[in-house]
Protein ROT1
Amino acid sequence: MILTSLLTVVLASLAQLTVAQVDDTQGPILYDLAHNATVITGTWTSGSKAVVTGEGFCDPVKLTFTYPKNTGVSFSFSGDGHYEIARYRFNGNGSDPTCITGVIGWVHGTYTLNANGSIWMRPFGDGFQQIQDPCAAVSNFIETYNETEYYKGWRIFSDPNDGPKLHLYQFDGSPVAPLFQVSTTPSMFPTKLLRNDTFISVSRRSLEEEEEDLARRDSSATVDRRLSISGVLGAAGLLTAAGVSMML
Ligand SMILES: *[C@@H]1O[C@H](CO)[C@@H](O)[C@H](O)[C@H]1NC(C)=O
Ligand SMILES: *[C@@H]1O[C@H](CO)[C@@H](O)[C@H](O)[C@H]1NC(C)=O
Ligand SMILES: *[C@@H]1O[C@H](CO)[C@@H](O)[C@H](O)[C@H]1NC(C)=O
Ligand SMILES: *[C@@H]1O[C@H](CO)[C@@H](O)[C@H](O)[C@H]1NC(C)=O
Ligand SMILES: *[C@@H]1O[C@H](CO)[C@@H](O)[C@H](O)[C@H]1NC(C)=O
């Protein structure tokens, strides 16, 4: 009983501390043990640990994802200022509960830990996401994702059971799900631009059809799928630039 109420008090003060520390109008932040029990470098993932950054999550050149078993989010940070994010989530629809949208996305770039405790993450330009929306006119499409992200604050606590636990607070102060460290060395793609193109949005179906067409034409089975897709994307970029919708 006493232990429980003590624990409650400790947890409550921890929560207060957490909230107080995400105030990015104060500073400079003291990056001490109380602020971050360890360094931020490594790979972090939420709850089920199904989503992890790095080569197993997607192929940024072919614009494909390997769907994880569960939803979640993962961040990696390198010691030399690079980050990578993998996300997979479902968004509900208040007006129509059967219209659940699936969003899976990947992005990488450079980050800075700022004196006021915030983090800027600036993408390279090759990030992409796939949206599956059964109720939309285009139910499955891929688009570029190149958002610069601002996090108001971060803390790393040492959880007695789960080890280091990273808390990130988004631009509006809302917390990202707690992230557990899966490795101290980051699991990341090469930290540079991995694809050059100007596409904005392309339907997944058109990519697959293009691949099938190519496979039919070239039965020698040495189909360069990469070329096929970048061909489609190149065309998509041009069409989009010309104001023609690529959505099928
Ligand atoms: C915190 O620092 C970053 C980087 O210098 C800056 O962009 C941001 O505006 C600062 N936040 C506030 C509330 O001043
Ligand atoms: C907390 O983070 C800062 C900034 O990266 C780092 O210099 C420091 O070593 C970290 N503290 C611990 C205890 O790892
Ligand atoms: C919710 O679903 C309806 C179709 O039933 C759609 O018109 C609307 O745009 C959806 N809202 C969101 C936020 O996705
Ligand atoms: C992506 O965003 C970064 C940071 O704002 C910017 O420097 C870069 O030019 C953008 N790339 C593309 C392809 O839009
Ligand atoms: C992107 O284009 C630049 C300039 O032409 C080139 O140096 C770079 O190697 C290209 N990157 C990729 C991943 O194709």
In short: The first helix runs from residue 2 to 21. Residues 24-25, 114, 116, 118 surround 2-acetamido-2-deoxy-beta-D-glucopyranose (ligand 1) (CB under 6 Å).
